[in-house]
Write a structure and sequence with these properties.
single chain; Rossmann fold; 9 helices; 39% helix; globular
Length: 290
């Protein structure tokens, strides 16, 4: 019996060693409270804007809407679900271009706005059109616009913003991809993601990526979410996505959105907050460099 227990322990140790780095390849817990205070107190220094505009884009079902809910959960300290999601939809559940403010108190909002957009699909006649995403980045698409995959948004459209202000424009572009899907991204989808990235680069818009659903991609992350940045398989997904899309590794973040939880969890919050803080820092740099 003693020998069996010893063997079991050794097997567990070897499995752990193979699956994990000896230390995190990115430390996201060290300044958690300070980072939370930074996010909550952030205000753009550029007086031409009141809110930092962050656009989330990516394939259908990647977790864009859930990420917005998760950010709101972190800032409010309770699980929220204001942005509607659908786990069973095979097509984009988000049909309208929607700007989400997060309420700080009854009389004010946080200085970050998340813009949710229809997801990309494999079918060229379904999902958001790349050209519509480009117009959104330039500030031409109004809040509430309902996308039509078969008809692009045009200058002649009555809702078209012909003279967008800096406040209307996107200040940070974030690509959202499920961690388990990185190795299965089709050539057609990657072409769309690359085209959006290149357009954002021409506009000078900083870009980041978040790999969501890490708990679904890796059983180790599901059981030990606090070890996410030590898990080798997740680091491999980050490296692979960096090579595919060209986004540097230090601009790619691992995230678990709130999904089945009814209470907040500091380990989940840390991952979300790490990504959010960098979005704000990149956006602030963009506004100050104009």
């Amino acid at each position: 019996m003693m020998l069996l227990k010893c063997y079991s322990f050794m097997l567990t140790y070897v499995t752990f060693s193979l699956a994990y780095f000896s230390k995190p390849w990115r430390n996201v817990t060290e300044n958690y409270r300070r980072d939370l205070d930074f996010v909550k107190s952030y205000q753009p220094r550029n007086k031409d804007v009141k809110h930092l505009q962050i656009l989330l884009h990516g394939p259908v079902g990647s977790g864009k809407s859930s990420f917005i809910n998760s950010v709101e959960t972190v800032l409010k300290g309770r699980v929220t679900g204001r942005v509607l999601t659908d786990a069973n939809s095979g097509s984009s559940f988000t049909e309208k271009y929607t700007a989400y403010k997060i309420q700080k108190d009854p009389g004010s909002f946080y200085s970050v706005i998340f813009n949710d957009i229809m997801g990309f699909e494999q079918n060229t006649k379904a999902g958001v059109d790349v050209e519509d995403v480009k117009l959104a980045m330039r500030g031409h698409v109004p809040d509430g616009y309902k996308f039509n995959p078969e008809v692009r948004f045009q200058k002649t459209d009555k809702d078209y913003k012909s003279s967008p202000t800096l406040e209307d424009r996107v200040h940070v572009l974030v690509c959202v991809i499920p961690a388990a899907s990185v190795s299965r991204i089709s050539e057609e989808l990657m072409k769309k993601l690359r085209e959006v990235r290149l357009a954002a680069t021409e506009m000078g818009i900083p870009q980041l990526a978040i790999l969501t659903k890490v708990d679904e991609a890796c059983p180790e992350a599901k059981n030990y979410i606090n070890e996410t940045y030590r898990i080798k398989s997740l680091k491999e997904q980050v490296d692979q996505f960096s090579m595919l899309l060209g986004i540097p590794v230090n601009c790619i973040f691992l995230v678990k959105n709130y999904h089945s939880e009814t209470n907040t969890n500091d380990d989940i919050n840390v991952l979300i907050l790490s990504a959010l803080k960098q979005m704000i820092c990149f956006g602030e740099d963009f506004l100050n460099n104009l």
